[in-house]
Amino acid sequence: MRVGILGASGYVGGELLRILLFHPKVEVTCVTSKRHVGEYIHHVHSNLKGLTELKFIEHNPEEISDKCDLIFSSFPHGLSVKVLPDYIERGMKIIDLSADFRLKNPEDYKKWYGYEHPHPELIEKFVYGIPELHREDIKRSSLIANPGCMAIASILALAPLVKSNVIDKSRMIVDAKIGSSGAGGAPSLSTHHAIRFGVIRPYKPVNHRHTAEIEQELNQIAKDNVRIAMSAHAVNVVRGILSTCHLFTLKPITISDLWKIYRGFYQKEPFIRFVKDKKGLYKLPDPKILIGSNYCDIGFEVDEHVNRIVIFSAIDNLMKGAAGNAVQNMNIMLNIDEKTSLQMPGLHPV
Amino acid sequence: MRVGILGASGYVGGELLRILLFHPKVEVTCVTSKRHVGEYIHHVHSNLKGLTELKFIEHNPEEISDKCDLIFSSFPHGLSVKVLPDYIERGMKIIDLSADFRLKNPEDYKKWYGYEHPHPELIEKFVYGIPELHREDIKRSSLIANPGCMAIASILALAPLVKSNVIDKSRMIVDAKIGSSGAGGAPSLSTHHAIRFGVIRPYKPVNHRHTAEIEQELNQIAKDNVRIAMSAHAVNVVRGILSTCHLFTLKPITISDLWKIYRGFYQKEPFIRFVKDKKGLYKLPDPKILIGSNYCDIGFEVDEHVNRIVIFSAIDNLMKGAAGNAVQNMNIMLNIDEKTSLQMPGLHPV
Amino acid sequence: MRVGILGASGYVGGELLRILLFHPKVEVTCVTSKRHVGEYIHHVHSNLKGLTELKFIEHNPEEISDKCDLIFSSFPHGLSVKVLPDYIERGMKIIDLSADFRLKNPEDYKKWYGYEHPHPELIEKFVYGIPELHREDIKRSSLIANPGCMAIASILALAPLVKSNVIDKSRMIVDAKIGSSGAGGAPSLSTHHAIRFGVIRPYKPVNHRHTAEIEQELNQIAKDNVRIAMSAHAVNVVRGILSTCHLFTLKPITISDLWKIYRGFYQKEPFIRFVKDKKGLYKLPDPKILIGSNYCDIGFEVDEHVNRIVIFSAIDNLMKGAAGNAVQNMNIMLNIDEKTSLQMPGLHPV
Amino acid sequence: MRVGILGASGYVGGELLRILLFHPKVEVTCVTSKRHVGEYIHHVHSNLKGLTELKFIEHNPEEISDKCDLIFSSFPHGLSVKVLPDYIERGMKIIDLSADFRLKNPEDYKKWYGYEHPHPELIEKFVYGIPELHREDIKRSSLIANPGCMAIASILALAPLVKSNVIDKSRMIVDAKIGSSGAGGAPSLSTHHAIRFGVIRPYKPVNHRHTAEIEQELNQIAKDNVRIAMSAHAVNVVRGILSTCHLFTLKPITISDLWKIYRGFYQKEPFIRFVKDKKGLYKLPDPKILIGSNYCDIGFEVDEHVNRIVIFSAIDNLMKGAAGNAVQNMNIMLNIDEKTSLQMPGLHPV
After folding, report:
1. Radius of gyration of chain A, Cα coordinates, nearest whole angstrom
2. Do residues C156 and C272 make contact, with C-beta atoms less than 8 angstroms apart?
3. Is D252 on the interface with B (CB under 8 A)?
4. ipTM confidence score
5. Are C183 and A191 a contacting pair at CB < 8 A?
6. CB distance A191–C189 less than 8 Å?
7. Do C185 and A193 touch (CB under 8 A)?
8. Which residues on adjacent β-strands are paired with residue D314?
9. In terms of CATH architecture, what is D150-315?
10. Measured between CB atoms, which of D237, D241, D303 is closest to C236?
11. Which end of chain A has less neighbouring CB within 10 Å, N or C?
């Protein structure tokens, strides 16, 4: 399978390359970057030095569809939606890492992203790419909308609970903490090291865009109208998301109930791990031990004092939160072992 | 005023010294440390080198009550309660930084701290030392129970709302993030740099002890039974607490309403600042700009999507969360300008 | 004394304000910033919120010389030299934090900074502002060229040795490590948090500009031609410089000799501390304990294995490396206690 | 090949497991840990959760030599030398990660490590395990002494220069910077996060033990008496070493000369990369882009101002500085592709 990456000079592009250059079933044949045309990949992704002689090319759909069978689009939202229809027409397999085809309701793009969706007729063709929820659809589809990083962490944390109907779905708090790589590679005052280092900074206290996809997916599971109250915080790491979800129970619930709900929901999922230990250093999920890996670690606690459940989910935002999950989707689409090229655990300590 | 510090080798002790060595109205005459008897202060608090020739002495109540008029106790909880009655009897002014006299209900010590309070008769003599709530009582008292670091951040964030009766008091979420200095100076596996660096670690997902004092204080204001659902997280900084409070409104509320509630409640408080800006790098509170200062920065947002209010409060856990607030209490007790020796702003950038 | 700050929106400007707003003998009357004209200071320096109602004004020499008796210039090199002659003519006291008047030889500006010095006639009027070397000159002067951050750390480390004539002056290695605030406040790819975090990055392996001032000052002391071989590294902190100097001895030397050399040279210097302990956590200098303070900590070791001396000097680059030292210079010029407003020790832990 | 790891609960043990669990030619059959006997590996190495059901066993040479054909010893120095003779007698292949068999001169153990070597007769049987220098010997040997982390970084940086005879070998400065994982997993005051975070701390200014192995290896190449003047610094990262080497040239040298020297020496080495670029973010080596990888990046600069050469070498101290290099040695011993299981590049950004 010949694979191309559109917009490959960003962090997600680099991470896709890190994974795909070692993938036994695919060959990366095209990588595009407007600013770096003609440059070797390792001039931008210095960690990849010595691993490939590929160079960035301009974005040219004709050439790319000639040379590739599948493309990952790391274009920003708003651009992907303009560029991808051409590839769709050419019958290519596409995994879009932007938000442009995640939301099923065309109205939502206006509300959450501020633009009128130019191709509402294409939206339904895309499968929302969370393998743990839509594996069968992904298998049959050739168009995938890869989820947002905070969205996938939160959906994986909440889906089992929402399905089991034990919580008040109108008051679901998601308090997310994220590293700086989540903000992308473009420098700004707010990401300047002297400013960004050491922060515990609220940055999207309300109206975070990922709310839309979280609610869409959970509504589908709940057959009900869930309400996500999300606030995001920037913390002093580069990679990692911890999503802390505070839920109120409708009736008393035990830890054992939660184990049943979560184990039942996720059974043999290869990239879901439960972290809830009584000893050791990692009694609950922490992205610290997931850096570089595709796992989503999930843990939970019951608060009898206020009829609350707390769910923690941790991911590497560039892996399960972006590139890793995208490759997982690709593997499923290609009908090969889902774990191919994704099995390396996180580094520790790091 | 001659001042002593019991248990002065810890981080709070060091911070008290940093402040008090420059205080124009007091002289530090005694500092105790079991492990460092006879050593110069700067062998433990290396930053203070050159500022004092004081040495650590053993804890000897007779000597200390001879040489001091007021003591700060940085002894751990369980020890303070054993040691302080002697000083109380001697009529000394005391500011206790442990939890031993914070809770008014003697039963609560068993529930939250696991010990039977040996001196329930003394509890009522202590004023819970949040100047913004109990200034008049502090003025008249000579015994102060200085609040817990997460407690003060959360109480200052929530008190105005609780008073104004606009939120559901049975479901108040406090999602706290704290730096490593909050764990004190004793090394352990979980605080080992290679392990603690880069974490976003849940560490008291339920049943955090500070819940007790937060509820006590808010109940008093609410004349009602509030319920705090608190979860704490360790993040990759040394100093700083951000307390993110998620509340559900009973009826629609506007930002302008919140401004009125908060401004009305805090009026001219010297160490409360409101941070809610439309431009600049610090639109909401972040402990990053408070490091070394005694301020508590408070900001808020309204989430119309779920009838939620989010309140953020940020402090330096060693200052407004411990030593700074303790000195503020002392200043009030001594009837001198409350801001004395506490006016330095946070370092920035740092 | 009415004081103005030119180019006050940068990190050094903020630090000057943090110090001067509490200085009992001066009043800050003017602060300029091209980009922030009309804005309150705390919109840029958020840590100063609540401390001043000053606003940034445009740079207008007429107005400024009317309202100020002394100015600090934080303009970048190349701009200071254009702007300051006007103020010199008006007889104002000036402390220039740029490099524009540091080098005595006009040729050196071309060599090290790439521009022809437009006012060579003014250079001699400026005193190179290291109080420990030029206190008497500073006292008598009204024009000060404040040293570069790495320069002052290295000069203070090496001056005693150079004077004592015990080392090979043709092979003096300075291996410097510095935090991100040293790069200033302008964001760029190389200072982007995701990129800058966690580095141990060589960034000026040869030809660092501060070499020129270090050699100038040491030559003067040595009455000889010293050669500095300097390499700088960016490390994962915001503030702080550690300058590690490797020197080769001409004849065997002992630790006791070094103590004599350093004590003899620095006698009662208020901001020089020697850090060379056998116990405790800070046996040698580390900027960690100097954050926010004006100290320069110096320590040393003798390596008998290779006839080497290692000297360590640590400073806070924004304090002794810039704003703090500038205020120290001002205090000396104003003939007031040199330590005024500069006595606060570093924060610890931080 | 059945492989065992002695002392597998430390960071190097964890890293060996991370690599070997995915190695196609070996199976890990035994892992020992005194403190964790009977526990699952992932209770200690939480990142490995889900990858193995192995448990720690007690150190029992009989059992281990039954179940393993090759062992890695991560025992501390002083213990390895006691334990390994038994395995040697049993004819097992051994890769020792301690210092106990690195130094060829038995006297040196007393001088640098403070103990009398109990088995001087065994020393010569061990090959010092730097593949880039001793590949042929490693191939033929079954006993390998894996080098120290700072030693390998420095030797790889200096070997080509020493061989080419262009520098003053009596005055070679190594200024090393290292992350906290280099100090191992045992908590102490000096590694406590609040204390260790943010340091630029000199910690072995003279007499660093790795000096011995660096000189041994370089002497062999130089056929001459080299003198290493080494100083180590702890910086605020977990992984990574940057070794900055300052050398003085005997005669003028150009960058082009250096390219020839280094390229000539290292030709097709799979894990040596040269980093010396005119553009991009990583113009010189920085461990930041090596985290998790087995590369050693080398770069250089010529300082005409002082007849100095600066060489930079960067590694991940747990990989090329320990576990990665050990596996590379194993691959060579087993006569399989040297890069097996070691090809993953560093994470970026991280």
Report:
1. 20
2. yes
3. no
4. 0.97
5. no
6. no
7. no
8. D242, D297
9. 2-Layer Sandwich (3.30)
10. D237
11. N
Q: How far apart are CA C281 and CA B36, in angstroms?
A: 13
Domains B2-146+322-333 and B150-315 share a fold: no
- Please indicate whether, in this complex, the C-beta atoms of A229 and B303 are within 8 angstroms of each other: yes
CB of C43 less than 8 A from some CB of B: yes
CA-closest candidate to residue D311, choices D339, D274, D340, D260: D274
pLDDT, one tens digit for every residue, chain A (350 residues):
999 999 999 999 999 999 999 999 999 999 999 999 999 999 999 999 999 999 999 999 999 999 999 999 999 999 999 999 999 999 999 999 999 999 999 999 999 999 999 999 999 999 999 999 999 999 999 999 999 999 999 999 999 999 998 999 999 999 999 999 999 999 999 999 999 999 999 999 999 999 999 999 999 999 989 999 999 999 999 999 999 999 999 999 999 999 999 999 999 999 999 999 988 899 999 999 999 999 999 999 999 999 999 999 999 999 999 999 999 999 999 999 999 999 999 999 99
User: Do residues B58 and B36 lie in contact, with contact meaning Cβ atoms separated by under 8 Å?
Assistant: no
> Chains that contact C by 3+ CB pairs under 8 Å?
A, B, D
Buried b (16+ CB within 10 A) or exposed e, A8-39: bbbbbbbbbbbbbbebeebebbbbbbeebeee
CA B253 to chain centre: 30
A270 → chain D, closest CA residue: D50
Q: Domain coordinates of chain C in residue numbers?
A: 2-146+322-333, 150-315
Residue B206 CA to residue A75 CA, distance in Å, equals: 41
DSSP state of B205: S
* Cβ–Cβ gap C348/B50 under 8 Å: no
Cβ–Cβ below 8 Å for D238 and B194: yes
How do residues A269-307 score in pLDDT, each as one tens digit?
A: 999 999 999 888 999 999 999 999 999 999 999 999 999
The top-level CATH class assigned to D2-146+322-333 is alpha beta
Chain C nearest CA to A180, separation (Å): 6
Task: Give the neighbours of chain D: at least 3 Cβ pairs within 8 Å.
Answer: A, B, C
Give the nearest chain D residue to B179 (CA atoms): D194
| Distance to chain A for C297, nearest Cα, Å | 23
Chain D positions touching B188 (Cβ under 8 A) are 187
* Residues making up chain B, counted from first to last: 350
Give the one of D206, D227, D235 whose C-beta lies nearest to C310's C-beta. Answer: D206
Which residues in chain A are closer than 8 Å to C191, comparing Cβ atoms? 187, 192-194
Q: D183–B189: do the CB atoms touch at under 8 Å?
A: no
For residue B224, name the pLDDT band (cuts at 50, 70, 90): confident
- Contact check, Cβ <8 Å, B49/C350: no
Alpha helix positions (H), B227-322: 255-266
**Cα distance between residue C314 and residue C149, in whole Å:** 11
Residues of A carrying an active site annotation? 149
Q: Regarding beta strands A272-274 and B308-315, do their DSSP bridges make them parallel or antiparallel, or are they unpaired?
A: unpaired
Q: Which residues of C touch B269 (CB under 8 A)?
A: none
The first and second tokens of residue C325, run together, are 């030292």
Residue D86: HSE in the Cβ half-sphere, 13 Å Cα cutoff: 14
The catalytic residue among D30, D68, D149, D245 is: D149
Contacts of residue A76, defined as CB under 8 A and 6 or more positions apart, other chains included, come to: A7, A98
- Give me B285's structure tokens: 């509170």
Q: What is the DSSP letter of C8?
A: T
List strand residue ranges (DSSP E) for D193-349, in order: 200-204, 228-235, 241-248, 272-274, 296-303, 308-315
Cα–Cα distance measured from residue C195 to residue C178, given in angstroms and rounded to the nearest whole number: 16
How many CB atoms lie under 10 A from the CB of residue C38? 10
For residue C203, the model assigns a pLDDT of 94
Chain A residues close to B306, C-beta within 8 Å: 170-171, 227-229
Q: Which residue has the tokens 């003609």?
A: A38
**Calculated CA dihedral for residues A282, A288, A291, A296, nearest 10 degrees:** 50
